[in-house]
Specification:
The chain is mainly alpha-helical. 58% of the residues lie in helices and 4% in strands. It has a two-stranded antiparallel ribbon with strand order 1-2. A hairpin with a 3-residue loop joins strand 1 and strand 2.
């Protein structure tokens, strides 16, 4: 249960800062770290970048527009979470960071141009699996999605480096949870 009223205007800065945060964290890294995963079937930082970029193309704003134009009468188009992997295959991290920053700036400018008043946040749309959702919930999910993927990238990198911390592993609950390789003896 929410403890306060949601404010997209307060959360918008998080969406705006995500590309810069990702650039600061990932741009200096070598390819082996950008492709590190937590094991088979898990995503690397480069996979997350491709997913985030594709979300700007095919998820957030298209769904906002469906709510505004059709309400719950037209369901959202299902979002292929891995379509960005194919779309951005072979792109360098720098190119992906640039693309995500460009797409996010366009998304936020397009959203701002819609001039959505706070009272319209209660408008409903229809998710193909979840059923009725509100515009407010969609916007809160957009922000939460960014933060969850930032945490995911940090976790992957922490667990990669955690392989080498030796006895300090005992001080990191994140490493205790890791199913990844144990540190070398």
């Amino acid at each position: 249960m929410p403890t306060s009223q949601y404010s997209f205007s307060e959360s918008r800065s998080l969406l705006e800062s995500t590309p810069a945060v990702l650039r600061a964290l990932l741009a200096p890294l070598p390819d082996r770290l950008l492709r590190a995963t937590e094991g088979p079937g898990t995503w690397s930082p480069i996979d997350v970048l491709a997913h985030l970029a594709w979300g700007e193309v095919d998820d957030w704003l298209p769904r906002v527009r469906i709510i505004l134009e059709h309400g719950a009468d037209r369901p959202f188009t299902p979002f292929d979470r891995e379509a960005g992997f194919a779309k951005y295959r072979g792109w360098s991290a720098g190119a992906l960071l640039d693309e995500f920053a460009r797409l996010r700036a366009e998304s936020l400018a397009s959203f701002d141009a819609l001039g959505i008043e706070p009272g319209r946040l209660r408008l409903e749309g229809r998710h193909p699996e979840l059923g009725r959702v509100t515009l407010e919930q969609l916007l809160a999910t957009w922000v939460t999605h960014d933060l969850a993927h930032l945490a995911q990238i940090a976790r992957v990198l922490a667990r990669h480096h955690g392989q080498f911390v030796g006895p300090w592993r005992a001080f990191f609950s994140l490493l205790k949870e890791s199913a990844g390789p144990a540190p070398a003896a």
